[in-house]
Each structure stands twice: as C-alpha cells, then as structure tokens.
Amino acid sequence: MSITKNFLKTRASCKVRFSLSAQEAFDAEGVFLAGDFNDWNLASHPMKRVKGNGFNLEIELPLGIDYRFRYLTDTGTWFNDPEADAYVVCVFTGEENFLVKL
C-alpha cells in the first residue's frame, strides 16, 4: 500500500495517488475508495487495475482538509491503509477511518 502526494503549484490542491497490490486487496476483482471527498459513496471512485493485478487511483483534493477514507473490495470487505497520515475512530461504527492530511 502506498499514498503519494503531488502538491500542485498552480492551484491550492494536491493529486493523491492511492496504490494497492492484489494481495493487499485480498485478491479482490475490484476495489473502491470511499471517504469524505465523495460522501462515502461506495461506487463513485473505483480503483483501476494495473499490471501485476494491483490497483491504483489518483484524485485531486483541495488543500487544508483532513480526509477520512477506507477501501472496500467488491466482496464487501472494508480495510484501512497503514500508510495513511493518521487515523480516527468513526462515531457511528466504532471502527477506525484513516486520514490523508493535506
């Protein structure tokens, strides 16, 4: 797993790339990225399958906000990213959500 940030010089935003190997994604056929940036919509940010059966997705996010997020496989398994900047406990589920800080 990895999170790569590319801060843009021309806008107050950052391109954030989320990457997973197939093993990290529990050998799922599909993975979705859900979080504050998409109102936790479970289908709006499907990750793209890459060579070697991993997944990645790059999204542009405004600066100055901490975004909670998690990954969801097509089999219904939620999981977190240990490469995230921090984590917080969700008040609704009691589970951890991970943060990317911009």
Helix proportion range: under 10%
**Cα-to-Cα separation, first versus last residue:** 19 Å
What is the N-to-C succession of helices and strands? EEEEEEEEE
| Domain unit count | 1
Radius of gyration: 13 Å
Report strand %: over 45%
Q: What value does the average pLDDT take?
A: 90
List the helices and strands and how they pair.
Blueprint: E1 2-7, E2 13-20, E3 31-35, E4 48-50, E5 54-62, E6 66-73, E7 78-79, E8 86-89, E9 96-101
Antiparallel strand pairs: 1-2, 2-5, 3-6, 4-5, 6-7, 6-9, 8-9
Tell me what you see in this structure:
With 102 residues, this protein is mainly β. The protein has one domain (2-101): Immunoglobulin-like. The chain has no helices and 9 strands. The protein has strands at 2-7, 13-20, 31-35, 48-50, 54-62, 66-73, 78-79, 86-89, 96-101. Strands 3, 6, 7, 8 and 9 form a 5-stranded antiparallel β-sheet that branches. The chain is globular and about 35 Å long. 22% of the residues are buried. The mean pLDDT is 90.
Which terms summarize this structure?
five-stranded antiparallel beta sheet, mainly beta, 102 residues, Immunoglobulin-like, 9 strands, four-stranded antiparallel beta sheet
